[in-house]
Amino acid sequence: TTTAPDATDDAYLEIDGLTKVYDDGDDSVVAVDDMNIDIADGEFLVFVGPSGCGKTTTLRSIAGLEEITEGQIVIDGENVEGQAPRERDVAMVFQTYALYPHMSVSENMEYPLKVRGMPKDERDRRVRESAELLEITELLDRQPKDLSGGQQQRVALGRAIVREPRVFLFDEPLSNLDAKLRVHMRTELNRLHNQIGKTSIYVTHDQAEAMTLGDRIVVMDEGEVQQVAPPQQVYDQPVNSFVGGFIGSPQMNFFDAEVDVDAGEIRTDAFTLPYPEWMHDRIGRGGTFAAEFGIRPEDISVEGLDEDATAEDHATAEVVVVEEMGSDFFLTLENDGVEYQAIVEPNTNLQRGDRISLQFDLQKCHLFDDDTGDSLV
Ligand code: ATP
């Protein structure tokens, strides 16, 4: 093996310089570009990013389903290069449940153990225990065609759990379920992970799924890792405007801005706000510079009608759309042709066409570099 034990620290699975290039003759795609991530034993790590960013390729590389171009995957101190998927002792759960239609639920779950030549009584015990864990005991004699989508997904999970693998790999396992069931299964996966405690790597394009499941989230774009951090940190301190915009729904508002340090102002086409002291302390630039200003919809609140505006960190806006969501209202606002969104407390007095005064939570706003998109704060 190529890795000294002290180099691994307490990483259970290491992705070291993973690069995958698909080369179809004259066309080559860098699907994953020099990825380096250490995953702790028992961690739930979620890869998230837009379609085509390289999530599935990463997962398939760990599983041994793709030959990688450069780098290595180290599981429990062992470089798994050249090992077939079966030898890696990892279990993959797919978006399509891939159940065997001619086998019952218990036969489906038992099958991977049978293939490995496990004795019958051990097979039975594992199927029984996994079925209890997944609350599908009463379904064991059914055929897959007689199950709902959610039940089929549980059986697919069961088929991975019975193997007691050292790592679980999930490829968008919930994306074929309807919205309500998806949220329910998300909670179930959280519960299962707490009970089983095995290292899990999960791929999704759904940022809400990533936020709720991950101990840490890996945000990817175009084959490159953008940020690796716990969910709240990714949300509060995005390293660049891509991450700021990708995580959070409705998404962060962005404005082209000019920061005038001497005047102490951030000027956008929609409004002018004071340049907060804490930003100045961190950024340290003088003069005037261009930047991208970001603020999340929930960090904008309604102060009242326009005439109530007083302090300087206020701006006025016209209400374009009011969406009543029950626990909050989504507002689409406009100033001088620039539209943006706010999530505010329910206020049935608000109407389309109102001119209102807004308050911005300047502790929570962001400035990004105009060229690179990197966070300046
Ligand atoms: P999605 O969410 O749509 O599944 P993803 O983030 O999982 O996307 P990948 O499937 O890993 O992305 O694809 C990454 C890039 O590699 C894409 O540009 C894709 O077109 C390309 N790619 C994937 N598989 C192959 C292949 N077998 N041959 C050539 N290019 C491929």
TrEMBL record:
Gene Ontology molecular-function annotations: ABC-type transporter activity; ATP binding; ATP hydrolysis activity
UniProt keywords, alphabetically: ATP-binding, Nucleotide-binding, Transport
Domain ABC transporter span(s) in chain numbering: 13-247
One GO term of the biological process aspect: carbohydrate transport
Catalytic activity: L-arabinose(out) + ATP + H2O = L-arabinose(in) + ADP + phosphate + H(+); D-xylose(out) + ATP + H2O = D-xylose(in) + ADP + phosphate + H(+)
Transmembrane residue ranges: none
Annotated InterPro entries: AAA+_ATPase, ABC_transporter-like_ATP-bd, ABC_transporter-like_CS, ABC_transpr_MalK-like, ABC_transpr_MalK/UgpC-like, Mo/tungstate-bd_C_term_dom, NA-bd_OB-fold, P-loop_NTPase
Pfam families associated with the record: ABC_tran, TOBE_2
Gene3D superfamilies attached to this UniProt entry: 2.40.50.100, Nucleic acid-binding proteins, P-loop containing nucleotide triphosphate hydrolases
Localization, UniProt: Cell membrane
Listed GO CC annotations: ATP-binding cassette (ABC) transporter complex, substrate-binding subunit-containing
Membrane topology field: Peripheral membrane protein
Top-tier EC class: translocase
EC number(s) recorded for this UniProt protein: 7.5.2.13
Protein purpose: Part of the ABC transporter complex XacGHIJK involved in the uptake of xylose and arabinose. Responsible for energy coupling to the transport system.
Family: Belongs to the ABC transporter superfamily. Carbohydrate uptake transporter-1 (CUT1) (TC 3.A.1.1) family.
Subunit structure: The complex is composed of two ATP-binding proteins (XacJ and XacK), two transmembrane proteins (XacH and XacI) and a solute-binding protein (XacG).
UniProt protein name: ABC-type D-xylose/L-arabinose transporter
Organism encoding this protein: Halopenitus persicus
